[in-house]
Write a structure and sequence with these properties.
nine-stranded mixed sheet, about 20% strand, globular, nucleotide-binding, EC 2.7.1.4, kinase, about 325 residues, UDP-N-acetylmuramoyl-L-alanine:D-glutamate ligase, Ribokinase-like, alpha/beta, PfkB_Carbo_kinase
């Protein structure tokens, strides 16, 4: 690649706690770790060997210093203006239940620095709170519209947060608008249940694929695996059996591995997934499912490196 993948969205600190009833000793515990869905995707890409630039915004407070050290330490480039001494670093409080499944409450402000596309950039990824929280959401929409004719692949993970956008109807309208500007859309089964209750995942995928640009929709199903749907194929990939520690960041690890798998097959950039075969679709979804599984075996948003992936699953 001649330029890094561009990831746009929030970077924040996850304050992760165990619900008291779920803790073995009856006492909740908390830890503060770097997070934010787009930031997690950027780290996941970099760990898998894909050069990555993150457009975000956080401060120079204690949480911001923690974020900066984490991103730089994992090889993520930060776009100019992403570190702002006048900005208060955002946080997300995640509470884990007895099964390790997280629910979130957010303290976040989102206004990105100026957005621009580097020559040769193979892909732009965005999603999560950054695409629905103003004023930053409007900037992202305008940017995606401005690059619509550029030779770059766009990926989207709405990562719906009902605590931020409680109205599923208006949120789905936003998702549809952004999805129409994207080549690939990734949803979780929880996203589907919130945004389109009572609709089968395959039907949601078919609905999104009516947009002229959208070529592929992938829907994760937790421990059941994932569904991949393109214009020519549908694949069901089963997740490997693992011992789950928690699910924090699993979807972001999945998204990073999905992009990395497409990059490895030369399907990004001006190709915009053109030539994606059923075999390609199965393999990239399987790769992503296995990367997410590794993350679920350890605490927090901790995506695997390429070496860890190979050591666990082989090449």
């Amino acid at each position: 690649m001649s330029a890094p993948v561009l990831v746009i969205g929030e970077a924040l600190v996850d304050i992760v706690g165990t619900a008291p009833k779920a803790a073995r000793n009856g006492n909740g515990k908390t830890t503060a770790t770097p997070g934010g869905s787009p930031a997690n995707v950027a780290v996941g890409l970099a760990r898998l060997g894909v050069p990555t630039e993150l457009v975000t915004r956080f401060g120079t407070d204690g949480y911001g210093d923690q974020l900066g050290a984490h991103l730089f330490g994992n090889g993520v480039q930060l776009a100019p203006g992403s570190v702002d001494p006048n900005f208060r670093t955002s946080t997300a409080t995640a509470t884990l239940d007895a099964a390790g499944v997280a629910t979130y409450q957010f303290d976040i402000t989102w206004e990105p620095p100026a957005l621009s596309l580097s020559r040769g950039c193979p892909a732009v990824h965005t999603g999560s709170i950054a695409t629905v929280l103003e004023p930053g959401a409007a900037a992202i929409r305008a940017f995606l519209e401005s690059v619509a004719e550029q030779p770059v692949t766009v990926t989207l993970d709405p990562n719906a947060r009902p605590s931020i956008t409680p109205d599923p109807v208006s949120t789905w309208a936003v998702v549809r608008r952004l999805a129409a500007l994207s080549d690939l859309v990734k949803l979780s089964d929880e996203d589907c249940e919130f945004l389109r209750p009572g609709i089968e995942p395959a039907d949601i995928a078919a609905e999104l694929l009516t947009a002229e640009r959208t070529q592929c929709v992938v829907i994760t199903r937790g421990g059941k695996g994932a569904l991949g749907v393109s214009r020519d194929a549908q694949v069901d990939v089963t997740a490997p059996a693992i011992q789950v520690v928690d699910t924090v960041g699993a979807g972001d690890s999945f998204m990073a591995a999905l992009i990395a798998g497409l990059e490895k097959r030369g399907l990004l950039g001006e190709r915009r997934l053109a030539g994606l075969t059923p075999e390609d679709l199965h393999d990239v979804v399987d790769h992503a499912v296995r990367a997410a599984a590794i993350t679920c075996t350890r605490h927090g948003a901790d995506p695997p490196t390429a070496a860890e992936y190979t050591a666990t699953w082989g090449s």
